[in-house]
Amino acid sequence: MAKKAVASMQTGEGRTSVKIIKMVKSPKTGAYAFNEEMVPNEKVNEYIKK
Predict the structure, then answer these.
(1) What DSSP character marks residue 38?
(2) Please, which residues have CB within 8 angstroms of residue 35's CB and are 6 or more apart in sequence?
(3) How far apart are CA 33 and CA 23, in angstroms?
(4) pLDDT tens digits, residue range 6-44?
(5) CB contact at 8 A, 13 and 21
(6) DSSP code for 16
(7) 32 contact partners, CB below 8 Å, separation of at least 6
(8) Whether the model pTM is above 0.85
(9) How far apart are CA 11 and CA 34, in angstroms?
(10) Which pLDDT score is estimated for 47?
(11) Distance (Å, whole) CA 4 – CA 32
């Protein structure tokens, strides 16, 4: 049975964080990898610009 991780992270005021999946290219091999991170709503634009 699947876990409901998103539902357990929510509080009364709604969602306070977002899961961001960013594709990054390795400088050595040239292969792509995916980085997943939970980021607060206020810092989404700041994280994406990195």
Answers:
(1) E
(2) 21, 22, 23, 24
(3) 6
(4) 655 555 566 788 898 989 999 999 999 998 999 998 988
(5) no
(6) -
(7) 23, 24, 25, 26
(8) no
(9) 28
(10) 82
(11) 28
Q: What is the chain's percent helix, strand, coil content, to nearest 5?
A: 30, 40, 30
| Residue 19 DSSP SS3 | strand
pLDDT at 2: 54
Which tokens sit at 30?
């040239």
Three-state SS for 31?
coil
Q: Which amino acid is at 2?
A: A
Cα dihedral 34, 37, 39, 43, rounded to 10, equals -40
